[in-house]
Amino acid sequence: MANDSHHSHQIDGLAFALGSHAIWGIMPLYLGLVHDVPSIEFVAWRIIFTLPLCTAVIAWRGQWGELRAAFSQRRSVLALLASSAMIGINWVLYVVAIQTDHVYAASLGYYILPLVMMLLGLAVLKERLSGPQWGAVALAAVGVALLAAGALSTLLFSLTMAVTFGLYGLIRKTVNVGPIVGLMVETLLLILPAVAIAGWYAGQPAGSSMLQGWPLAGAIALGGPMTAVPLMLFATAARRMDYTLIGFLQFLSPTIVFLLGLLWFHEPLKPAQLGCFVMIWAAMALFVWDLFLRRRKLPRPA
Protein backbone atom coordinates (compact mmCIF):
# COMPACT_ATOMS: atom_id res chain seq x y z
CA MET A 1 0.00 0.00 0.00
CA ALA A 2 2.87 2.38 0.77
CA ASN A 3 4.35 1.67 -2.68
CA ASP A 4 0.97 2.31 -4.34
CA SER A 5 0.64 5.60 -2.49
CA HIS A 6 4.14 6.55 -3.62
CA HIS A 7 3.35 5.98 -7.32
CA SER A 8 0.04 7.83 -6.99
CA HIS A 9 1.85 10.79 -5.42
CA GLN A 10 4.30 10.81 -8.35
CA ILE A 11 1.44 11.03 -10.86
CA ASP A 12 -0.03 13.94 -8.86
CA GLY A 13 3.25 15.82 -9.25
CA LEU A 14 3.41 15.18 -13.00
CA ALA A 15 1.22 18.17 -13.94
CA PHE A 16 3.45 20.52 -11.91
CA ALA A 17 6.57 19.16 -13.59
CA LEU A 18 5.11 19.41 -17.10
CA GLY A 19 3.90 22.96 -16.44
CA SER A 20 7.31 24.15 -15.27
CA HIS A 21 9.13 22.59 -18.21
CA ALA A 22 6.65 24.00 -20.74
CA ILE A 23 7.24 27.54 -19.44
CA TRP A 24 11.02 27.07 -19.44
CA GLY A 25 10.81 25.71 -22.97
CA ILE A 26 9.28 28.90 -24.38
CA MET A 27 11.63 31.13 -22.37
CA PRO A 28 13.80 32.00 -25.43
CA LEU A 29 10.76 33.69 -27.02
CA TYR A 30 10.35 35.87 -23.94
CA LEU A 31 14.07 36.61 -23.74
CA GLY A 32 13.88 37.96 -27.28
CA LEU A 33 11.84 40.85 -25.86
CA VAL A 34 14.71 41.82 -23.55
CA HIS A 35 17.55 40.99 -25.91
CA ASP A 36 19.20 44.41 -25.51
CA VAL A 37 19.18 44.39 -21.71
CA PRO A 38 22.60 43.46 -20.23
CA SER A 39 22.39 39.90 -18.92
CA ILE A 40 23.55 40.71 -15.36
CA GLU A 41 21.14 43.64 -15.09
CA PHE A 42 18.28 41.53 -16.41
CA VAL A 43 18.90 38.77 -13.87
CA ALA A 44 18.87 41.43 -11.14
CA TRP A 45 15.49 42.69 -12.32
CA ARG A 46 14.18 39.11 -12.45
CA ILE A 47 14.97 38.78 -8.75
CA ILE A 48 13.51 42.18 -7.89
CA PHE A 49 10.22 41.50 -9.68
CA THR A 50 9.96 37.99 -8.24
CA LEU A 51 9.75 39.45 -4.72
CA PRO A 52 6.31 41.14 -4.96
CA LEU A 53 4.79 38.06 -6.58
CA CYS A 54 6.13 35.77 -3.85
CA THR A 55 4.96 38.26 -1.21
CA ALA A 56 1.45 38.29 -2.66
CA VAL A 57 1.25 34.47 -2.71
CA ILE A 58 2.62 34.19 0.85
CA ALA A 59 0.05 36.77 2.04
CA TRP A 60 -2.80 35.08 0.19
CA ARG A 61 -1.95 31.68 1.68
CA GLY A 62 -1.19 33.07 5.14
CA GLN A 63 2.30 31.56 5.29
CA TRP A 64 4.08 34.32 7.23
CA GLY A 65 4.57 31.96 10.18
CA GLU A 66 6.13 29.35 7.91
CA LEU A 67 8.43 32.03 6.46
CA ARG A 68 9.58 33.09 9.94
CA ALA A 69 10.15 29.44 10.86
CA ALA A 70 12.28 28.95 7.75
CA PHE A 71 14.53 31.87 8.71
CA SER A 72 14.84 30.52 12.25
CA GLN A 73 16.38 27.26 10.96
CA ARG A 74 20.07 27.91 10.31
CA ARG A 75 20.48 24.73 8.27
CA SER A 76 17.58 25.62 5.99
CA VAL A 77 18.85 29.16 5.45
CA LEU A 78 22.33 27.91 4.54
CA ALA A 79 20.84 25.35 2.16
CA LEU A 80 18.66 27.97 0.48
CA LEU A 81 21.64 30.32 0.29
CA ALA A 82 23.45 27.61 -1.67
CA SER A 83 20.43 27.01 -3.90
CA SER A 84 20.16 30.78 -4.48
CA ALA A 85 23.76 30.85 -5.69
CA MET A 86 23.16 27.88 -8.01
CA ILE A 87 20.03 29.32 -9.61
CA GLY A 88 21.61 32.77 -9.92
CA ILE A 89 24.59 31.37 -11.83
CA ASN A 90 22.25 29.28 -13.97
CA TRP A 91 20.10 32.30 -14.87
CA VAL A 92 23.11 34.36 -15.94
CA LEU A 93 24.50 31.56 -18.12
CA TYR A 94 21.12 30.95 -19.74
CA VAL A 95 20.49 34.61 -20.53
CA VAL A 96 24.01 35.02 -21.92
CA ALA A 97 23.51 31.96 -24.16
CA ILE A 98 20.25 33.27 -25.60
CA GLN A 99 21.47 36.86 -26.02
CA THR A 100 24.63 35.72 -27.83
CA ASP A 101 22.65 33.45 -30.17
CA HIS A 102 23.90 30.20 -28.63
CA VAL A 103 20.44 28.66 -28.31
CA TYR A 104 21.73 25.15 -28.98
CA ALA A 105 24.36 25.53 -26.23
CA ALA A 106 21.54 26.33 -23.80
CA SER A 107 19.52 23.44 -25.20
CA LEU A 108 22.46 21.03 -24.74
CA GLY A 109 22.90 22.20 -21.15
CA TYR A 110 19.33 21.25 -20.38
CA TYR A 111 19.67 17.98 -22.30
CA ILE A 112 22.59 17.05 -20.05
CA LEU A 113 20.64 18.21 -16.97
CA PRO A 114 18.25 15.21 -16.77
CA LEU A 115 21.20 12.83 -16.71
CA VAL A 116 22.82 14.91 -13.95
CA MET A 117 19.57 14.93 -11.97
CA MET A 118 19.08 11.18 -12.35
CA LEU A 119 22.69 10.56 -11.29
CA LEU A 120 22.13 12.69 -8.19
CA GLY A 121 18.87 10.87 -7.46
CA LEU A 122 20.52 7.47 -7.72
CA ALA A 123 23.76 8.33 -5.90
CA VAL A 124 22.59 10.79 -3.24
CA LEU A 125 18.93 9.92 -2.64
CA LYS A 126 19.32 6.16 -3.27
CA GLU A 127 16.36 6.09 -5.67
CA ARG A 128 15.75 3.19 -8.04
CA LEU A 129 14.70 2.82 -11.67
CA SER A 130 12.69 0.02 -13.28
CA GLY A 131 14.03 -2.02 -16.21
CA PRO A 132 12.20 0.02 -18.90
CA GLN A 133 13.30 3.25 -17.23
CA TRP A 134 16.95 2.14 -17.37
CA GLY A 135 16.41 1.43 -21.07
CA ALA A 136 15.07 4.95 -21.51
CA VAL A 137 18.10 6.37 -19.70
CA ALA A 138 20.42 4.43 -22.03
CA LEU A 139 18.64 5.80 -25.11
CA ALA A 140 18.80 9.33 -23.73
CA ALA A 141 22.49 9.01 -22.87
CA VAL A 142 23.29 7.95 -26.44
CA GLY A 143 21.30 10.89 -27.78
CA VAL A 144 23.03 13.40 -25.51
CA ALA A 145 26.44 11.94 -26.41
CA LEU A 146 25.65 12.49 -30.11
CA LEU A 147 24.71 16.11 -29.43
CA ALA A 148 27.72 16.75 -27.16
CA ALA A 149 30.10 15.37 -29.79
CA GLY A 150 28.94 18.06 -32.20
CA ALA A 151 29.27 20.92 -29.71
CA LEU A 152 32.63 20.43 -27.99
CA SER A 153 33.48 24.14 -28.16
CA THR A 154 30.56 25.05 -25.86
CA LEU A 155 30.41 21.79 -23.89
CA LEU A 156 31.90 23.28 -20.67
CA PHE A 157 29.33 26.08 -20.79
CA SER A 158 26.52 23.53 -21.19
CA LEU A 159 27.88 21.29 -18.43
CA THR A 160 28.00 24.22 -16.00
CA MET A 161 24.36 25.03 -16.75
CA ALA A 162 23.39 21.40 -16.12
CA VAL A 163 25.31 20.98 -12.86
CA THR A 164 24.16 24.27 -11.31
CA PHE A 165 20.47 23.53 -11.89
CA GLY A 166 20.86 19.87 -10.92
CA LEU A 167 22.31 20.91 -7.55
CA TYR A 168 19.61 23.56 -7.18
CA GLY A 169 16.87 20.97 -7.63
CA LEU A 170 18.53 18.51 -5.25
CA ILE A 171 18.74 21.15 -2.51
CA ARG A 172 15.12 22.19 -3.02
CA LYS A 173 13.98 18.58 -2.79
CA THR A 174 15.84 17.87 0.42
CA VAL A 175 15.48 21.15 2.34
CA ASN A 176 12.64 21.14 4.87
CA VAL A 177 10.88 24.23 3.48
CA GLY A 178 7.79 24.43 1.25
CA PRO A 179 8.14 25.41 -2.42
CA ILE A 180 6.67 28.93 -2.21
CA VAL A 181 8.28 29.82 1.13
CA GLY A 182 11.59 28.43 -0.14
CA LEU A 183 11.45 30.63 -3.23
CA MET A 184 10.63 33.62 -1.03
CA VAL A 185 13.67 32.92 1.16
CA GLU A 186 15.90 32.56 -1.91
CA THR A 187 14.59 35.83 -3.32
CA LEU A 188 15.17 37.69 -0.04
CA LEU A 189 18.70 36.32 0.14
CA LEU A 190 19.41 37.62 -3.37
CA ILE A 191 17.48 40.90 -3.21
CA LEU A 192 20.27 43.14 -1.84
CA PRO A 193 22.83 42.12 -4.50
CA ALA A 194 20.08 42.47 -7.13
CA VAL A 195 19.17 46.00 -6.02
CA ALA A 196 22.86 46.94 -5.92
CA ILE A 197 23.39 45.68 -9.47
CA ALA A 198 20.28 47.47 -10.77
CA GLY A 199 21.45 50.67 -9.05
CA TRP A 200 24.94 50.37 -10.55
CA TYR A 201 23.50 50.09 -14.07
CA ALA A 202 21.22 53.07 -13.37
CA GLY A 203 24.31 55.13 -12.60
CA GLN A 204 25.99 54.32 -15.91
CA PRO A 205 25.82 56.68 -18.94
CA ALA A 206 23.32 54.39 -20.70
CA GLY A 207 21.05 54.46 -17.64
CA SER A 208 18.71 51.79 -16.33
CA SER A 209 17.01 49.55 -18.88
CA MET A 210 13.75 50.18 -16.99
CA LEU A 211 13.87 53.79 -18.21
CA GLN A 212 14.23 52.94 -21.91
CA GLY A 213 10.48 53.05 -22.61
CA TRP A 214 7.31 51.39 -21.34
CA PRO A 215 7.41 48.36 -23.70
CA LEU A 216 10.88 47.33 -22.51
CA ALA A 217 10.04 48.11 -18.87
CA GLY A 218 6.92 45.93 -19.12
CA ALA A 219 8.91 43.10 -20.69
CA ILE A 220 11.50 43.29 -17.90
CA ALA A 221 8.77 43.30 -15.23
CA LEU A 222 7.27 40.18 -16.83
CA GLY A 223 10.49 38.47 -15.79
CA GLY A 224 9.07 38.21 -12.26
CA PRO A 225 6.23 35.79 -13.03
CA MET A 226 8.29 34.10 -15.77
CA THR A 227 10.82 33.33 -13.03
CA ALA A 228 8.59 32.62 -10.04
CA VAL A 229 5.81 30.52 -11.57
CA PRO A 230 7.93 27.72 -13.12
CA LEU A 231 10.20 27.59 -10.05
CA MET A 232 7.15 27.20 -7.78
CA LEU A 233 5.80 24.44 -10.03
CA PHE A 234 9.19 22.72 -10.18
CA ALA A 235 9.73 22.87 -6.42
CA THR A 236 6.24 21.43 -5.85
CA ALA A 237 6.91 18.58 -8.28
CA ALA A 238 10.33 17.92 -6.73
CA ARG A 239 8.74 17.42 -3.31
CA ARG A 240 6.19 14.95 -4.72
CA MET A 241 8.24 12.93 -7.20
CA ASP A 242 11.44 10.91 -7.26
CA TYR A 243 14.32 13.12 -8.37
CA THR A 244 15.24 10.60 -11.08
CA LEU A 245 11.73 10.86 -12.52
CA ILE A 246 11.44 14.63 -12.46
CA GLY A 247 14.94 14.72 -13.89
CA PHE A 248 13.93 12.63 -16.87
CA LEU A 249 10.93 14.86 -17.55
CA GLN A 250 13.42 17.74 -17.80
CA PHE A 251 14.04 16.60 -21.39
CA LEU A 252 10.81 18.38 -22.34
CA SER A 253 12.05 21.97 -21.95
CA PRO A 254 15.30 21.62 -23.96
CA THR A 255 13.35 19.84 -26.68
CA ILE A 256 11.08 22.87 -26.97
CA VAL A 257 14.18 25.11 -26.95
CA PHE A 258 15.72 22.87 -29.62
CA LEU A 259 12.64 23.23 -31.84
CA LEU A 260 12.61 26.99 -31.31
CA GLY A 261 16.26 27.16 -32.33
CA LEU A 262 15.42 25.24 -35.50
CA LEU A 263 12.06 26.76 -36.48
CA TRP A 264 12.10 30.25 -34.95
CA PHE A 265 15.76 31.25 -34.69
CA HIS A 266 16.66 29.33 -37.89
CA GLU A 267 19.84 27.78 -36.57
CA PRO A 268 21.15 25.07 -38.93
CA LEU A 269 20.27 21.48 -38.02
CA LYS A 270 23.21 19.07 -37.90
CA PRO A 271 22.89 15.27 -38.24
CA ALA A 272 24.05 14.79 -34.63
CA GLN A 273 21.31 17.12 -33.40
CA LEU A 274 18.67 15.25 -35.39
CA GLY A 275 19.95 11.94 -34.01
CA CYS A 276 19.80 13.30 -30.47
CA PHE A 277 16.26 14.56 -31.02
CA VAL A 278 15.06 11.13 -32.19
CA MET A 279 16.78 9.24 -29.36
CA ILE A 280 15.51 11.61 -26.67
CA TRP A 281 11.90 11.39 -27.79
CA ALA A 282 12.09 7.61 -28.02
CA ALA A 283 13.48 7.56 -24.49
CA MET A 284 10.75 9.92 -23.23
CA ALA A 285 8.05 7.76 -24.81
CA LEU A 286 9.44 4.64 -23.13
CA PHE A 287 9.79 6.37 -19.76
CA VAL A 288 6.31 7.87 -19.74
CA TRP A 289 4.78 4.62 -21.00
CA ASP A 290 6.33 2.75 -18.06
CA LEU A 291 5.09 5.42 -15.63
CA PHE A 292 1.49 5.21 -16.80
CA LEU A 293 1.62 1.42 -17.02
CA ARG A 294 2.49 1.43 -13.34
CA ARG A 295 -0.36 3.87 -12.72
CA ARG A 296 -2.86 1.47 -14.35
CA LYS A 297 -1.76 -1.28 -11.98
CA LEU A 298 -2.66 0.79 -8.91
CA PRO A 299 -5.91 -0.18 -7.17
CA ARG A 300 -8.79 2.17 -7.92
CA PRO A 301 -10.13 4.15 -4.95
CA ALA A 302 -13.43 2.94 -3.54
TL;DR of this structure?
This protein is mainly α. The chain has helices spanning 2-25, 27-31, 39-61, 64-72, 74-99, 103-123, 131-149, 155-174, 179-202, 214-221, 223-240, 243-249, 252-263, 271-297.
Q: Which helices and strands appear, and what pairs or packs with what?
A:
Blueprint: H1 2-25, H2 27-31, H3 39-61, H4 64-72, H5 74-99, H6 103-123, H7 131-149, H8 155-174, H9 179-202, H10 214-221, H11 223-240, H12 243-249, H13 252-263, H14 271-297
Helix pairs in contact: 1-11, 1-13, 3-5, 3-9, 3-11, 4-9, 5-8, 5-9, 6-7, 6-8, 6-12, 6-13, 7-14, 8-11
Give an account of the 3D structure:
The chain is mostly helical and 302 residues long. It has one domain (2-297). The protein contains 14 helices and no strands. The protein has helices spanning 2-25, 27-31, 39-61, 64-72, 74-99, 103-123, 131-149, 155-174, 179-202, 214-221, 223-240, 243-249, 252-263, 271-297. Helix 4 (64-72) packs across helix 9 (179-202), helix 5 runs antiparallel to helix 8 (155-174) and helix 7 (131-149) packs antiparallel against helix 14. It starts with a helix and ends in a 5-residue tail after the last helix. The model has no long low-confidence stretch (mean pLDDT 83).
Using DSSP, what is the number of strands? 0
* Number of H/I helices: 14
Q: How many domain units? A: 1
DSSP helix fraction: over 70%
Give me the secondary-structure category.
Answer: mainly alpha
Mean pLDDT: 83
Describe the largest sheet: none
Distance between the termini: 14 Å
